Amino acid sequence: MPKIEFRGKFYNNEFEMPPEERKAYNREKDSRAEKNKTGSKSLSDIVEMSPEVKAIYERARENVEEKLASSQPRKDLPKTEDIYRQSAPDNMKHLQSDESIYRPSAPLIDPTKSTIEPEPVMGMNRFVSTILWALILAGAAYFVTQFLL
């Protein structure tokens, strides 16, 4: 970031300046910007443009007097269903529009009933019961190998 030189002193940014100097710096910066703004011409005054390009340029600079279709209130815009009815071929006007795919469908499961049920209070955890069964089987195998074979 470039350093700011103001009244013979250098600053890394304007927040390092004392309050009085910062106000003076901002005033000078605003007055310089105002001078540059009033002396500059619009691009459409300098460059020859077709009417379509000029309209796009003016719209981009927000200098459009007429109200754009996109700035109309939402309630005044036609619904998708109406647009579909106008543009669909005659043999397809009775069909539903694609807007129906965006409507929420009925839930597949009852959202009020939980599918995860709590474990019984005195029931054993599966992990613990698996370890116990493994120990019992290992003990039985040890007993068989030591005393029966």
Task: Supply the key terms.
mainly alpha; two-stranded antiparallel ribbon; 5 helices; 149 residues
Average pLDDT score: 76
Q: Unreliable runs, pLDDT <50, ≥5 residues?
A: none
Q: Structural class, from helix and strand content?
A: mainly alpha
Strands ordered across the widest β-sheet: 1-2
| Counted beta strands | 2
What does this structure look like?
Among the domains are: 4-40, no CATH class; 51-100, no CATH class. 44% of the residues lie in helices and 4% in strands. The protein contains five helices and two strands. It has helices at residues 19-39, 43-46, 51-60, 80-87, 126-148, and strands spanning 4-6, 9-11. A two-stranded antiparallel ribbon has the order 1-2. Strand 1 (4-6) and strand 2 form a beta hairpin. The longest helix has 23 residues, at 126-148. It is flat, with a radius of gyration of 39 Å. It starts with a strand and ends with a helix.
